[in-house]
Design a protein that fits this description.
The protein has helices spanning 17-29, 74-82, 109-125, 143-152, 171-180, 209-218, 240-255, 264-269, and strands at 2-11, 34-38, 41-43, 67-69, 86-91, 97-98, 101-102, 133-135, 155-157, 185-187, 190-193, 222-228, 259-262. It is α/β, with parallel strands linked by helices and 275 residues long. It has one domain (2-269): Glycoside hydrolase/deacetylase (TIM Barrel, Alpha-Beta Barrel). The chain is globular and about 50 Å long.
Amino acid sequence: MKYVIIRDDDTNALTPIECLETLYRPFLERSLSVNLATIPNVRSDVFLPNGQPEGFLATSKGVKPGSYPIGSNQRLVAYLKENQNYKIVQHGYHHEFVGSCTEFDHENRADIARRLDHGTRHLLEAGFARPRAFVAPYDRMTRVSYQEISKRFDLISTGWFELGRMPYKWWPQFFLRKIRNVRHWRAGKTILLSHPGCHLSYHRPYGTMLEEIKKSIASRRLTVLVAHWWEFYRTGEPDHPFINILHETAEYLAGDKEIKVISFEDVLTQRVQLN
């Protein structure tokens, strides 16, 4: 059996329901879990180093500068709760840059702890269950970030692992992972899942995207497929050819009896073989 986790990043209080509904209705109709890495308190004035607004603001033009807690959009919250195959994962706090660093790519322990705790509080105040999985913005974390995140969350999903960023007490498990050549591993009580890059991205060739997804799933026991909802609407209008590929992916996942789509919560509560 092959396991697949769908992880879509950057849902926030400014995300139009219509975007999520268009993208993921084929998944929901097939009872396939979609893990939404949700920004607890999005800022509407986040800019990339090149001066461009963050991609997840593409559909938010004209919004006043400021912070928007996820609970401030009750219509979106109600929609997410009504569709139980949406699984909420904590995705940073503001999803912003701190000086020249990304939100958790620094070593200010107090600031990291504050962002983690305030982010969880916003999700709880919106009525969601306490998240057990965490996704760092841009997949960037330092040793201090890993330490503070692992105190609060049981699972971390990221793109890659670097020894210099690992807590020292995790080094033996890190080296054992390297020796065994495994992609997913455990450090103490923390499960650490990697992903093979963003196959579902407009930066990838559309003509070969689904075949590359199939190859990736075939090559590993557990695959985390990462997408960003706003990439399908990056110009403010839907990219229909790209959306069609996403829907074809849902059909493929539901139709292959050797594939089971699961959630991060399933990894924590069920006997799922990671590698």
